[in-house]
Each structure stands twice: as C-alpha cells, then as structure tokens.
Amino acid sequence: MSGINGRWLCAAVVAFAAAMTGTSGAQADSVPQGKELVILGDSFTANGWNPLSQEKKCDHGDTAWPVQLGALMGVQGTDQMWNQSCPGASFDTGDGYTLKVQAANADKAGAFGPNTKLVTLQFGLNDFWGGAKQSPWNSIEHCFYDVLGGCGPDAVAAGRMTDPQNVTGTEYAARIGKIITYIRYYAPNSHIVIVGYPELFRPDQDSICYDIAGIPATQPRGRTVVEYLNRLDQAGREAATQLNLEYLDARALTAGHGLCTPQQWVNGVFDPKVNIAGLPFHPAPQGDAVVANALYERYAR
Q1: Is the pTM of this model over 0.85?
Q2: CB within 8 A of 50, min separation 6: which ones?
Q3: Where are the beta strands (DSSP E) in 117-244?
Q4: 175: left (phi over 0), alpha (psi -120 to 50) or beta
Q5: What is the reported pLDDT for 258?
Q6: Which of 7, 129, 174, 226 has the fewest Cβ atoms within 10 Å of its own Cβ atom?
Q7: Mean per-residue pLDDT for 94-99?
Q8: Across 43-52, 64-73, 221-230, least confident range
Q9: What is the phi/psi pair of residue 22, to 5°?
Q10: Which residues pair with 40 in a beta bridge?
C-alpha cells in the first residue's frame, strides 16, 4: 500500500506505543477529517456495466446500493462520499483493483478521518481461496452454461470447479486484517461493515435457474454453486466476528427474491421482465434498495 506507507507506519508505531503505555495516543494534526461514506467493493457494489464496451473501467450503476445509500445520507454527488468499488475487484487476487489499491486511493483522497461515519467492504467472489487456481465466480460462470457436466459435487472431484470448503472465515479475516487495522485507526468513529452478497439461490437448493431474455434455463446439478454462496456468507460472518466488525446479511434481506422467483430482485441475462440492461446475475434496483435502506437505518442515520 505504497500511497499510505507513511500513515501506516505512523499508525503502527502509535498503536504499539499505546499498547505499551495504556494510552491511545494523539492523532497528528495533518490527519484528514475524512468523508462521511467510504465504499470499497466489487461488481456487486458498483453494479454498472456497458455491454457494448470492451474497456475495463469502474462503472457505477445509477441504482447501485452505494448510489441509493449516498442519496439517503445526503452525500451522493458531494465530496463527503468516496466510492472506490469496481467490477472484478478482489481482496488480493490478481493485479487489478484490489482492496489494497482501493484503500490506498481512498486514503490519498482523504477519505478516512474522524468524521467518517461508514466504511463498507463487499468482496470475495473474485478471489482464489485455499490455494485454488480459479475464483468462485469463475467456477459459477462456467457452471451456468455447462449443461452436460453440471455443478454438483462431481464437478469438484473432476476438477471443473474448486472446492467451496476452501472458503473460510479465518482466511477471510487474514486477508483484510491489516486494512481494517488501518481504517479503524484513522476513522475511529466509523462503522466498518462487511456487506454480504444478496440471495441468488436459496441456501438449500440443489438445482439452479436463471433467465436468458426472459426465458428460464435450469441447471439441475447446481449444488456446488449454492455451496460457494453459502460458504462466502459464513466466511464473512466469521471474519466480522473475529475482527469485531459489523456484518450486513444481504442474503437474508433479499431472501425469496433470487433468480427465477415470482418477485425477482436479481438481473437475468438481458431479461426484460426485471431489468434488461442490468448486469447479469447482479442485483436489480429493488435488491439494491433493500441493502441501501438497511445500511442507512442501522449505521448512517
């Protein structure tokens, strides 16, 4: 995190001194006051795309939950909100817009400070876990269209999918721990919230369904996809407990509104019944509204 090495070193030194002396230490006068709302996350946070563009950039959808949350807080479009979320982002997998990069950019913008109310993190689907060579999202995408092979336990045994058991709360906490220490030190009054993923499928499903142009397509052997989502939800909860963070259970908030449900809050593939221009398999405006409202009511009023 080269952009904040000076502040990181200062935080580490002061924290160590406080531990040795029993005092909290005074923050330097040069520390920014911070922005009220800081958003870090992946495509489920940014929720924007242009299907006709080949350019990779951090599009933010007009109805994505950070936009709706910012409007509720009265900071959308002002310098009191910093949204670093980006499609394809991860904790630390690859060389793209990782949590480390996002936090460094937020820090350079003076986003972390005593006036910061809320910092959110929504990551995990794009990461490699437990030494695996592909992410849960890669596995899920391949499985959606693997009509013959399917996505049951045999897919893991055959090497088509990585084992969901690789996803653990201990690894989750280890991957974000240093960043959380940094944010907590420089934004001491903020709520730091891990935002879970919304419901795509019920936790007990074996088959999975999705819409293509409004027509349902079913994958009868989809249990491993569901297990990935179950494990990510569990790992996020466990990491929040281990690091003394808040956890927003977006899955519970959107229960019963996953893919192929009567009141669907997730986009299909060019699905005119829900949101034809929406990012496939990501939240529709209604799903994002529920998450935004919950964050506002619990942490940002």
Answers
A1: yes
A2: 59
A3: 118-122, 191-195, 208-212, 215-219
A4: alpha
A5: 96
A6: 174
A7: 89
A8: 43-52
A9: 80, 15
A10: 121
